[in-house]
Design the sequence.
């Protein structure tokens, strides 16, 4: 039941319409590893520079994250600065300083190679493929990607997709990858490219699962106040994969994937309630389950038997 | 079980990335009356000019729509021209020629005044209030509005809201009316302004119902190809109100409103599959019910009992 994540660990500067923070822990693999650690033991593969604060290392350690695969090399840690528009409807990247991340070469420690579950966060598809080459026989492989790779490295991405049990992307990305204006039609085209299942993340509007056995839609969980949406997608993925790795023995069924999507949705709703990993670090599992139940409640209805006049 | 709708009847010019049509039947009350006529007898209150084609009159008549309240006056019919962006993520109004609609004075024929159900489509809130003044004792009153009135006539709108059983607006409008960046928090603030329930339309991401007894979310129904999203919101309202007027005796419960939302969702998904009212005119009720069932299927899952390790 081990879960390997490969992605970025970053130091972020974030501004919203109301607040700002500088030099806070960010990056896809940070959100993922801390989120998933609530449900399964996590092994991290990432790179940080010599400036990376010890307190963040201790934070990962406090969640039992295996740091054998965390490379620490001379130089500065990946730095991202972003500003969100009012209502969080869009965001602008103010700085993307790759620093040591530019030379990231994900080498898996021997103790990682027999992992059952793998999440390839949004990095170059060549590196994502390279990670898979190092795994002996993973049971479930999920990956994220983005417009940059969809446009820039389509062949490497095409080689990755058939190797995936699950591709997790957002609504814009599925349209771009599927090449149609309809999310549904695009989702079908994306499935034709090889991944066994597809999750489309729709931000505050929820998420959808597309699978050979059907489609499943779930709204987002209710959040009173969004403070920082950074990391919501990776936290969603962490709940999804953490649930599969920690609670589902064997190959997951369509029903298991629906459950995983709901756990991811519940968990992601906490990530946005504060900056960085604040809400995730000490989050009790029963709080996640309470939100999961509210979410399940919010979609409950008993379909009518007929629309004909009685 | 009579259902009165007050709104616009228009002649539209529509361009999408792939197609365009000129001088086609549009307007909120057109979509609403034809959509709702599948489920309940509809009485229309609107105004058209002397240029309004007879074939559109016959179309309304073919659906049994009561046209006693359709004013026909000298001049040109309301004309709207709009262009949708690729992916239908936004639209631009190219022309809004109110023509005879500028002087619209909704007077209800005597035979309309004892209507049980009323839908006030998006018109000046003063006129919406005026329509309600003419009704004897409606059982269920729903209204739409828009940013223009939220900004421009807040006092008239504030007078309308406590008179409503249901306000139906979109995600941008709820944020504007509620004054927060969160749909959920804004929805609560809107309910505080007086309507007994609120539906937030999220376009291709579905719709949410906010009610004293809880919240209900439903995704949009699957559409293979969107050709023209014009009228989707009014068709949604038509299914919602048509279901209440035609199938729910007495005051609707929270469960009835959930059902109504699902019927509206199913019906709206047909409207966008073609231009104007093409898909709605001859739509068999069992096709609507089939889509309703697929929709219900797409949200079905059995929540897990616990997130704790087994």
Sequence:
């Amino acid at each position: 039941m081990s879960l390997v994540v490969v992605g970025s660990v970053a130091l972020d500067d974030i501004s919203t319409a109301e607040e700002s923070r500088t030099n806070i822990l960010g990056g896809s693999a940070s959100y993922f590893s801390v989120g998933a650690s609530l449900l399964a033991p996590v092994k991290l593969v990432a790179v940080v520079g010599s400036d990376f604060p010890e307190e963040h290392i201790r934070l990962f350690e406090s969640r039992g994250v295996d740091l054998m695969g965390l490379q620490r090399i001379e130089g500065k840690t990946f730095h991202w600065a972003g500003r969100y528009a009012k209502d969080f409807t869009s965001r602008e990247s103010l700085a993307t300083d790759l620093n040591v991340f530019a030379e990231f070469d994900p080498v898996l420690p021997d103790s990682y190679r027999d992992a059952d579950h793998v999440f390839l966060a949004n990095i170059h598809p060549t590196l994502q493929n390279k990670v898979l080459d190092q795994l002996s026989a993973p049971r479930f492989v999920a990956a994220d990607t983005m417009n940059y790779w969809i446009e820039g490295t389509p062949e490497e991405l095409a080689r990755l997709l058939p190797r995936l049990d699950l591709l997790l992307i957002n609504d814009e990305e599925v349209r771009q990858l599927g090449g149609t204006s309809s999310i549904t039609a695009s989702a079908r085209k994306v499935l034709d490219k090889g991944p066994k299942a597809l999750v489309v993340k729709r931000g505050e509007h929820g998420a959808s699962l597309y699978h050979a056995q059907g489609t499943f839609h779930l709204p987002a969980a209710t959040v009173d106040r969004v403070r920082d949406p950074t990391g919501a997608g990776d936290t969603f993925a962490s709940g999804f994969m953490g649930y599969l790795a920690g609670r589902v023995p064997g190959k997951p069924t369509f029903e298991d994937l629906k459950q995983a999507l709901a756990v991811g949705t519940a968990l992601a709703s906490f990530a946005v309630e504060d900056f960085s990993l604040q809400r995730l670090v000490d989050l009790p599992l029963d709080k996640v389950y309470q939100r999961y139940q509210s979410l399940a409640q919010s979609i409950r209805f008993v379909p009518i038997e007929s629309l004909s006049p009685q």
About this structure: Chain A has one domain: 3-298. Residues 254-271 of chain A form the longest helix (18 residues).
